[in-house]
Amino acid sequence: MIVILKENPNPGQLQDLTAWLKSQGVEIHTSHGQRQMILGLVGDTSRLDMDLISALDIVDEVKRVQDPYKAANRKFHPEDTVVELANGVKIGGGHFALIAGPCSVESEEQICSVALAVKAAGANILRGGAFKPRTSPYSFQGMRERGIQLLLEAKRQSGLPVVTEIMDAAQLPLFEEVDIIQVGARNMQNFELLHALGHIRKPILLKRGLANTYQELLMSAEHIMSGGNSQVMLCERGIRTFETYTRNTLDLTAIPVLHKLSHLPVVIDPSHASGRSWLVPTMGISAAATGADGLIIEVHNDPEHAWCDGPQSITPAVFQEMVPRVHAVRQALELEKEEGRA
Length: 342
Fold this sequence. Notes:
- The chain is an alpha/beta fold and 342 residues long.
- The strands form 3 sheets. It has an 8-stranded parallel barrel with strand order 7-8-9-10-11-12-13-14, surrounded by 5 helices. The chain has a 4-stranded antiparallel sheet with strand order 2-3-1-4.
- α5 packs across α6.
């Protein structure tokens, strides 16, 4: 249920209303818009009298929300969520993130050189895998704790905030200096992990599972947000279809659909979606044209000898050529919006 308040509600009446609602056992998520305040009510709202609430002087309208996800729902939170990192980088609400780096951390020289290269090309966040979930137990599983240490060294040298993937809640102490924690596609419905991430105050990049629906993705975000962590970003990284030429099928429809259903930022991963390096720039630019809030790109200084996912990694030189094209598309979209408002 959502309660839409009139402009400038009386503070005393608002305090009385929220106190009464809490006494009824519901949780209140408050959203401040440009002109209205919305109270999103989560819990058993079936016993709340809509007519009684509607009759209050400060209430403009009361609506029941049938969607199972509440905190992630745009109806509860009409304004876009903006995720802000400690160094001032913002994602969502018109702020665009370029996240780049290797699939896996391999050495100090490798991760630091790539970090400096992608920063020079325009990236504002560094990615790098320390824990690697692999289909084969015989494949490289990541440098684990040492990989995080090297990633943080690259952060110190480049000044870029970092994002890396967590595999288990028990690993959380290793992620204290990590700026964004990534939940991989295989862990999208690892609910124990999601609940643990809901009790920290750190941005989460939640990847869509390879065979999951939009609602399932949003329900996974809800598991995190229900714990109090509202800093969640949704990531589309391709879904499994009957097509075998590409690694996955990039679902660009996810961008407008998720923006319609939710207020959370939407980031696109064209590297995992395509699995082919030559497709990455085109699909990244296409995602920017479709309204993505950010891109996460695999960039490696020597893709042919990468320890993990070399075929889908682009070089720093290709990334440098891609960045201005992405910005040109976004500028064209902004110009179109401005002309439409004129």
